[in-house]
Automatic annotation (TrEMBL):
Transmembrane intervals: 101-123
Region feature Disordered, mapped onto this chain: 1-96
Domain YoaR-like putative peptidoglycan binding, first and last residues per copy: 189-278, 301-410
Stretches with biased composition (Pro residues): 61-93
Highest taxon, organism lineage: Bacteria
Record key words, sorted: Membrane, Transmembrane, Transmembrane helix
Protein name (Swiss-Prot/TrEMBL): Vancomycin resistance protein YoaR
Pfam families per UniProt: PG_binding_4, VanW
Length: 656
């Protein structure tokens, strides 16, 4: 094999690489060895500046200075590189790290807390707070409308149940309408937390409950009347000590404790019973003490014995009249003085009536001016001024004699006595025509009929002066058996009970309608609990001495004379004055909210049967006419009648 000759290396490394020609692209050189830059070929695409020709014009251009070959500094292999020393660890300081960690933890806790509140709050918003209960009924999580519907369905049904009350050894069933209770759903829902809950409400909803009491709208007047009716049937009022005469013999009636229904506590107990659906509740009876003592009664008996031991002689200018022991006994009473004692009171005015003529000519006694109705026209009876015994001074003198003893001959004083109403006053009052009359009917021959007739007798001839207020209770006084009134049925607080003077509401209703049609101003006026067909709708009155009165105002410039008339089955009240209006009429609305009555049977002692009546609401407006035209009208009066149960009294089967 032939040896290869020596390889000639070029002295110029650029000789083996063709140089670029002007106007031509440099050759593409690929695969340059490591460390060789493309810059050795010059700037590509850029024309090289032409050299300026020499001044001689014939010399070749000066060659540019050679560019040294860029060489990279050779790097030893990695395996031969000396290892760098590891970084020196800094000294450990925990405080900067803690300062960086604590804010982070706090931020995380705040975010978690917000999420723990916001997530359930958003879920609960728009509804009643979870865990909310009304009288044990859970309404939490419901919308306001759903909660209201649930309360109406469940709680209202609870309130519709009657409550049985026990008191004084008796039991009575109280209906919701008798108690005047009504569920106020809107107000109840208004107390429940709803909307977007606060953090405290979210916590309470998740960990506990919110208990609310239902809001009950209470007709205070109705509930008070119902309790009053219950009280009338069980109350045993305390009896004051007194002295009564059996002939001329005084007898002591010792005071007795009473037992009364606690009315305020009864109202609360009945309300609570309806709310909690107890069904049964016991009402408290509280003792009531009389004002007088046994010792004061015994002292009064001793005084009474001295009072009737002998007659009392009255003298005046040689004339004498005698008050017999019987007359003294008939007009002497002992009343409580409010301090535990009894004091004597002698009605000298009545005691003088049969004997005053012996001291003073009866023709000289005063008389008030009044009117008599003759041929349906008022005829004036003039007043008369006269002379008479000073009854007030006589009573004082006689009480002193009875208390201290001494002479039983008393000199009386006479003097001029003016009538209470003079002729000029009465004649100028305009009593000239009937301005209104009204009649109501009743069944004959009953105790209440007798009471109505007695009230008519008592009120007949009463004069009401201009701008004065008439009070029924003040004019009639307390109905008592001593005054001749009888015990008769009357509705009190929605319950039929026997009271002395029963029937008074019918007579008051008769007077009220005469006042209504006469155009006079209404005052205190309580409608009846139930509607009775014998009275106009919305134009009745309930009275009960002394707690419930009927008043009216004579708002005219004329006087009003009250005249009454009665028959075995009717009573009439007529008002005489000066007519101010052509006509006064009542505009009555249609009945609404009609409620059917219930039926029940009772075997209780003293049961009073009743005819069932529907309950309803009605409006009455009084309209005034003059010269055929309406001149004014009163504000409408709304009356709500409750349904009256039909009560059948069953025979009692008492077992010994």
């Amino acid at each position: 094999m032939r040896r290869a000759g020596p390889i000639d290396s070029p002295t110029d490394p650029f000789a083996s690489v063709p140089l670029p020609m002007p106007g031509k692209k440099p050759p593409k050189v690929e695969g340059l060895p490591p460390g060789v830059s493309r810059d050795i070929f010059g700037a590509t695409g850029q024309p090289e500046p032409k050299p300026e020709p020499a001044a001689g014009g014939g010399l070749p251009p000066v060659a540019p200075p050679p560019t040294p070959w860029p060489m990279q500094e050779p790097q030893p292999p990695a395996s031969f590189r000396p290892a760098e020393p590891p970084p020196r660890p800094p000294s450990y300081d925990p405080e900067p790290q803690r300062r960086r960690i604590l804010p982070t933890l706090l931020l995380v806790l705040v975010v978690l807390g917000l999420l723990a509140y916001l997530v359930p709050a958003v879920v609960m918003s728009g509804s009643v707070l979870r865990g909310t209960r009304v009288a044990g009924i859970d309404i939490g999580g419901l919308t306001v409308t759903q909660a209201a519907d649930k309360l109406r369905a469940e709680l209202a049904a609870r309130l519709d149940r009657p409550v049985t009350v026990s008191m004084g050894g008796r039991e009575e069933s109280i209906q919701p309408d008798e108690a005047g209770l009504e569920l106020d759903v809107v107000a109840t829902i208004g107390e429940a937390p709803s909307g977007f809950p606060t953090p405290a409400e979210v916590w309470r909803a998740m960990t506990g409950t919110t208990d609310l009491q239902p809001k009950i709208s209470i007709d205070a007047a109705q509930l008070a009347r119902t309790v009053e009716g219950l009280a009338e049937s069980v109350d045993k009022a305390p009896k004051e000590g007194r002295v009564v005469f059996s002939g001329l013999r005084p007898r002591a009636v010792l005071p007795q404790d009473g037992l009364l229904l606690d009315r305020d506590a009864a109202v609360r107990a009945i309300s609570t019973a309806f709310l909690r659906s107890q069904g049964d509740v016991a009402l408290n009876m509280v003792p009531a003490k009389p004002d007088t003592t046994e010792e004061s009664v015994r002292r009064a008996v001793a005084d009474a014995k001295r009072a009737v031991a002998a007659p009392v002689t009255l003298t005046k200018d040689g004339k004498q009249a005698e008050l017999s022991p019987a007359a003294i006994a008939a007009h002497l009473t002992f009343v409580a003085d409010g301090k535990g004692a009894l004091k004597p009171e002698f009605d000298a005015e009545k005691a003088l009536e049969p004997i005053e003529g012996k001291l003073v000519d009866l023709a000289q006694r005063p008389a008030d001016a009044t009117y008599q109705i003759i041929d349906n026209r008022p005829v004036l009876v003039p007043a008369r001024q006269g002379r008479g015994v000073d009854a007030g001074k006589l009573a004082e003198d006689l009480n002193r004699v009875l208390a201290r003893g001494g002479s039983r001959t008393l000199a009386v004083s006479l003097g001029a006595v003016k009538p209470q109403l003079s002729t000029s006053e009465v004649s100028g009052l305009g009593i000239k025509e009937s301005v209104a009359t009204f009649t109501t009917l009743f069944d004959c021959c009953q105790a209440r009929a007798s009471n109505i007739q007695k009230m008519a007798q008592q009120l007949d001839g009463t004069m009401v002066l201009p701008r004065k207020t008439f009070s029924f209770n003040e004019a009639m006084g307390q109905p008592t058996t001593e005054a001749g009134y009888l015990e008769a049925p009357q509705v009190v607080g929605g319950r039929m009970v026997n009271v002395v003077g029963g029937g008074g509401s019918q007579f008051a209703t008769t007077l009220y309608n005469a006042v209504f049609l006469g155009g006079f101003e209404n005052g205190e006026h309580t409608p009846m609990d139930y509607h009775a067909p014998r009275y106009p709708e919305g134009r009745d009155v309930a009275v009960l001495y002394p707690r419930r009165d009927f008043t009216w105002v004579n708002n005219s410039q004329y006087g009003v004379l009250i005249k009454t008339a009665y028959s075995p089955t009717s009573v009439t009240v007529t008002l005489w004055s000066t007519r101010r209006y052509d006509k006064v009429e009542a505009v009555v609305s249609d009945r609404r909210e009609v409620t059917p009555f219930r039926r029940q049977s009772s075997s209780e002692a003293g049961c009073l049967p009743t005819v069932g009546q529907q309950g309803f609401t009605v409006d009455v407006t009084r309209v005034f006419y003059d010269n055929g035209k309406e001149v004014k009208r009163d504000k409408k009066v709304t009356t709500e009648y409750r349904p009256q149960a039909q009560v059948t009294c069953a025979a009692r089967n008492d077992v010994e």
